[in-house]
Amino acid sequence: MSANTVTQRHYAIDFMKWRGIAVVASLALSVIAIGSLGIRGLNFAVDFTGGTVIEAGYQHPADLKAIRSELEAVGFSNPIVQNFGTTKDVLIRLAPIKQGENGMELRAQVMEALNKNLEDRPDIKRVEFVGPQVGDDLVEGSLIALLASTIFILIYVAWRFEYRFALGAILATLHDITMIVGLFSVFQLDFDLTVLAAVLTIMGYSLNDTIVVFDRVRENFRKIRRADTLDIINQSINETLSRTLMTSFLTFLTAMAMAIWGGEVLRNFGIALVIGIFVGTYSSIYVATALAYKLGVSRSDLLVPEKEGADDGRP
Questions:
Q1: Which of 130, 147, 165 is the last residue of a domain?
Q2: Are residues 261 and 169 in the same domain?
Q3: Which residues make Cβ contacts (< 8 Å) with residue 166, sequence separation at least 6?
Q4: Degrees (nearest 5) of the Cα angle 136, 137, 139?
Q5: How far apart are CA 196 and CA 153, in angstroms?
Q6: SS (H, E, C) 187-207
Q7: What is the mean pLDDT of residues 244-259?
Q8: Nearest alpha-carbon partner for 263 in 55, 28, 69
Q9: pTM
């Protein structure tokens, strides 16, 4: 009995001890994220809204107010002009062009407005145009992709393990998505196709991390038959912790490099990955596994039924 007790509690960190605090923290952050999404919404980039994005570089710090006035003077309504990176770099976002206009005409109008200041003519580094219909199609396709991914995750985990673990995995995935898009809403960061790609990537990353823990839980239930469920979960998390931390740390470094040095195109993609790696690792422990425990998962739920006589050594 003594040896069995030692075996059951052979772990260094009692993760499940803090599951109550973790649930409260997750709920609070989720409420903030959902509230921000409902009130402020997402700052959709031109990929989704349609329109034109122009990146210009100046030799001296740019006067954003003057640039905005110059664009309005040639007919652009409510242009969005902001710095990014440095005060010499300007990002201009324009509403979708009217029917009958084309990209070349639009570019000529923008150049006419920006070149009024002969002392500091800008260097146009990038011009991107997306039609309104393309933006609508991307929004619809993105929602379908997220919904399909969620459904397939539910089916896969329920088939591979057990429905209570499937519910935990789905809730963890939704938790990760909420945290990422919620932060982008709170800080009004541009939500474009690269961020959507990061969200889908994190869904797979978080699920993989969850599956690793689930596999170890099932294995330990098979090896330690008289152990308490909570002890088995804690021991499984501890045994997979080094692998999780090593994978997360190396991936985090790559994502951080993109967020810092990736430029305007990759910056938000890197930010989304940084957030997702952190919350994905957290949710694998305190959302997916903790929920499965709360729903009452047990050893009998995770093992394939054994053939009669398998336990007593008979053929």
A1: 130
A2: yes
A3: 153, 154, 157, 158
A4: 65
A5: 18
A6: CCCEECHHHHHHHHHHHHHHH
A7: 90
A8: 55
A9: 0.74
Q: 110 lies in which domain range?
A: 51-130
In angstroms, the CA 264 to CA 259 distance is 9
- Strand ranges (DSSP E) for the chain? 43-44, 51-57, 80-84, 86-94, 123-130, 190-191
Secondary structure of residue 308 in the 3-state scheme: coil
Task: Look at the chain and count its residues.
Answer: 315
Tokens at residue 173, please?
A: 């995935």
Three-state secondary structure call for residue 162: coil
pLDDT tens figures, 61-116: 888 888 888 888 877 777 878 877 788 888 888 876 665 556 677 777 777 777 77
Chain centroid to Cα 238, Å, comes to 25
Is the residue at 308 inside a domain?
no
Query: Do 283 and 185 have their domain in common?
Result: yes
Burial of 95 (0-12, 13-18, 19+ CB in 10 A): middle
Cβ pair 92, 80 in contact under 8 A: yes
Average pLDDT of the segment spanning 255-278: 88
pLDDT (average), residues 17-22: 89
Quote the pLDDT of residue 151.
Answer: 82
What are the residues facing 52 on neighbouring strands? Answer: 94, 129
* Cβ atoms within 10 Å, residue 133: 10
Convert the pLDDT of each residue in 107-143 to its tens digit: 777 777 777 765 677 888 887 776 666 666 777 777 7
Q: Which of the listed residues 94, 115, 130 is the one where a domain comes to its end? A: 130
